[in-house]
Write a sequence for this structure.
């Protein structure tokens, strides 16, 4: 299990993408909750082996799959090739210096990753730079105990306070199984 500042090891990728998880948490269910537009450019940040990346790529114009681990990015690339999905850009990044233009993304998605981000203040500032003014920051974290929670339980108030301190505003928090789907927009 990873903690603040520790990325999930590529050797544990089987725990992040396996048939049991797909049975209890199909990627399409969560993607549908994000209110995506087919013309969106999205970043799937902290992608691990790409559990949500392929489904997201099927729904939007372009996806940037970003992860700190080159091994995880290789896994996502292989999965994309196998699925014949070609609208994915692969980017190695810890989030503090994202090699994208200002205001280039409509959506940034983090699924059970925010609790791993070490310097959340710097990362959120960078998210603010690359996100369009009307873009969305979607943070999905475990907020209640459950039999199939795939990450440690987080405090919704702490997530909201940290992200809002970085000039984002919570638009809604939707419960989904053991998770909270937090949708933030940039402060104008």
């Amino acid at each position: 299990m990873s903690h603040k500042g520790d990325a999930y090891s590529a050797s544990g990728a089987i725990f992040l993408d396996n048939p049991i998880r797909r049975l209890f948490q199909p990627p399409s269910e969560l993607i549908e909750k994000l209110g995506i537009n087919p013309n969106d450019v999205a970043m799937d940040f902290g992608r691990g082996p790409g559990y949500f990346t392929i489904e997201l790529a099927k729904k939007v114009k372009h996806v940037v799959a970003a992860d700190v681990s080159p091994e995880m990015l290789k896994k996502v690339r292989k999965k994309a090739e196998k699925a014949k999905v070609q609208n994915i850009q692969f980017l190695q990044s810890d989030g503090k210096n994202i090699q994208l233009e200002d205001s280039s993304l409509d959506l940034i998605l983090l699924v059970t990753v925010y609790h791993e981000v070490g310097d959340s203040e710097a990362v959120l500032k960078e998210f603010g730079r690359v996100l369009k003014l009307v873009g969305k920051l979607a943070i999905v974290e475990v907020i209640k105990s459950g039999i199939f929670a795939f990450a440690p339980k987080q405090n919704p108030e702490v997530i909201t306070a940290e992200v809002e301190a970085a000039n984002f505003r919570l638009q809604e928090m939707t419960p989904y199984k053991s998770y909270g789907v937090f949708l933030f927009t940039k402060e104008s």
About this structure: DSSP finds seven helices and seven strands in the chain.
